[in-house]
Amino acid sequence: MKKGHVYLIGAGPGDPGLITVRGRECISFADVVVYDYLANEQLLESAPSRAELIYAGKIGGAHNHEQWQINSLLVDKALEGKIVARLKGGDPFIFGRGGEECEALAAAGISFEIVPGVTAGIGAAAYAGIPLTHRNVTTSVAFVTGHEHQEKDDTEIDWERLSLGSGTIVFYMGIKNLPQITRSLIDHGRSPDTPVALVRWGTRPEQQILEGTLANIAEKARKALFKAPAITIVGEVVSLREKLRWFDIRPLFGKGILVTRAADQAGEFSRLLSEKGASVFECPTISLVPPESSAELDRAILELSSFDWLVFTSANAVGFFFSRIETVGLDARALAGCRVCAVGPKTAASLLPYGIRPDLIPADYKAEGVVAEFGRMEMKGKRVLFPKADKARDLIPKALGEMGAEVTAPVAYRNVIPDRVPERAMLALEEQRIHCITFTSSSTVENLAAILGENRMIRLLEGVVVAAIGPVTANTCRELGLKVDIEPKEYTLEKMTDAISDFFNLP
Known about the structure:
- The protein is of the alpha/beta class.
- Helices cover 33% and strands 19% of the residues.
- The protein has a five-stranded parallel beta sheet, sandwiched between helices.
């Protein structure tokens, strides 16, 4: 059997956006992904669905796998002919024991590739607003392990040279030994007044920073119960943080926000919230699938030339509609004689890839806005095609019918309720790490209640800020016993994000 290949990939310090393009690419075609405690689990989403995922991390010295077992695992999987992605926090060759793993692979005659990553000392310092070098402060930096091999009798750290010869010193894995580290630096000549910063969970939304001096940081850490994983930065550059901090002053920093949109739609909203510093938990309460039968929609598509108006109330409707257009062998030219109404800028934008610019975008981004706009026109005898969700309100077809229009409203897609809440989101709810929950349609509220049960939902959301994108969704929240705290005046994800940010930053 042909031997496989192993990629040792630096996953970066925590923010999944910090992995390299090459690193993500290697994960995408792996047969096996072996990942560490410090590798963000969101990166596993890049792996193929067929890939075997193996956790091989350790927490505070408690090993899920010993190093020799990890080495053997990589060798064994490669000998099976597998492509293995070894995902390591930070950089594989900086206190990551990547060298040991490569030695084992080389001894077994297995080919490998090293994909460098952003090491914690650099990434966490940058996200803390601490430049490790600065020409007006220091031009040197040293990276040192704060946790030497337990079998060593003597330290290999030259404390005198480190104390007096280095500008900035970055200690990895040194929280447990912080009293000894600070004492050694002071004893070998470093000023007790030297600024120090501890950065825990650097680059992640839960990042924590504790500042002090060599003289007091160990006691401060003890009183604050400051735990690993963290790095220790020693040097005058720490004093620049007051001016240069950027990550932990964003408006939603430290806030846990639950996004209940469908899995294939949550990304944009999650990105908007993350950019403002939120810790986002995705909890899809909707799964969008085609109707059980598309016969009615297909008939309408084949008769498009006979319709005067085509009304889309969501980007979902656009996507499913054009999927059927393609299935029946047509393209956007079939809309040539039909005017198009799109509810909201997002729906309008979703039409552009198909070469369609809507003729009408109601000022009010909901069904009532559509009715109001058509109420200003002569609709008697007009034919209107309204591809809809299976649970869509009947306001548009009913109101247009009363105006004399002939409305055809085939189901373009269905909202299906997922079986359960994702484990990560459920744990965050139970541990009260969610500060705000967002609902972007009535279905998201109703479905969450169906998954959890109304009473359990209300209990879990006690004290959680509820944000609803518009009045219809807000009313559904209230009907299910929830108090709505945030309701943007414009019904877009951008305005929803701004409203959440404003709420948490009121004076």
